[in-house]
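pasting for ref
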Amino acid sequence: MEMPKPDDAVLSNRLRIADDLRAIVPGEGVIVDEDERRPYESDGLTAYKTSPLVVVLPETVEQVSAVLRYCHENGIKVVPRGAGTSLSGGSLPLEDGVLLGLGKFNRILEVDYDNRCARVQPGVTNLAITKAVEADGFYYAPDPSSQIACSIGGNVAENSGGVHCLKYGLTTNNLLGLEVVMIDGEVIRIGGKHLDSEAYDLLGIMTGSEGLLGVVTEVTVRLLRAPETVQALLIGFPSSEQAGDCVAKVIGAGIIPGGMEMMDKPAIHAAEDFVHAGYPLDVEALLIVELDGPAQEVTHLIGSVKEIAESCGAVSLKISESEQERLGFWAGRKAAFPAVGRISPDYLCMDGTIPRHQLPKVLSRMTELSNHYGLRVANVFHAGDGNLHPLILYDANIPGELRKAEDFGGDILKLCVEVGGVLTGEHGVGVEKRDLMPAMFTEIDLAQQMRLKCAFDPDGLLNPGKVFPTLHRCAELGRMHIHKGKLPFPDIPRF
């Protein structure tokens, strides 16, 4: 995995740049010492590490604006960072770039029940929003497995989902407004407490833009009323294919669960050993199906799901009888990623999305790929919306195993595209899927996306090296033409 070549002039001016930034963010807000920079050298994709030029931790919007303006005027790259839980390398630092950490933006600014929304700073954790409003019967719907740690600003950058995104949508479906600082320091507001705005969907453009367009400094999120009744079913199957068939049939019957998750045998055993959630250990696949709404409706839907599951060959079925038991069902799923970390020295967590009816085919093909590469894979994913999270187990201490795991992951993602799916559902492209983008998009598609990037960041200073497999200069992009497979402007660095 290659990144843009560092700018030697910037590297040689590290101390001067740090001094200039201290004038903007005084005190302990600028980190230069090598050991103190080390915690920021990677995000959740720990296979790749780079020490940033300087780390800056601003506390106010004015400081963010001044830092970006300074970097813009001096041609210095900037990588925005939230909690660093990204699994695609989206906040991987650059050797010649300022890492802009938003961790100190951690206040809930306003809770407005009349308009069913809350204004929060980007460093507020996902779960903290729900904790702040649950006593009044409200909650924030998107709930990534890392919700106890991941920040809402990072959720916006990656368009994160979670176990309840099937019914209630991803981050983009639960946002109302943003405050964003542009690379030249200009502060803009998009949306607000109202519903959809007219004209261009700038809110949609910023959501999932992975820090390539601007730095989010405030988020207005939609709050939902907690449902009257919530129950979950724990359903075991003798094969992953039968579990996948059940998923397709439940959705095909017009039932939209609050959440619908699937785990295969390796993930089930890892989670049960870690959390002791009461999962059956004699099944090959496990479905967690959560239904919410009025009590009578939930009772009816439980009966319908039970009937479908039995027709698909379910060998065990348990219905939660209390809130504590329901949360227990989810405890194993929420802890699946760290649980798998206990059974393998390293793993890559992939993220691709497929049409639901292709689930049995894709699971079968993944088994073949596992045998081909000689690497184990544990499957944990949002089955209801087809968002797969295969965990490829490997040992980085064995020469060549990381490369083999990367190739295995690449084949899984290409398979997702092949069956009509996409490269990512919620983790973003980052560096992990960057070089696979041509498997899904043509050169024309990518050039058009790059033109949008250029409209916001014409000098390419915001998070370069991510998402796009080929670097273009914005001034030349309009003249880009591929003739007989030969790229013009061969002096442009490509990686």
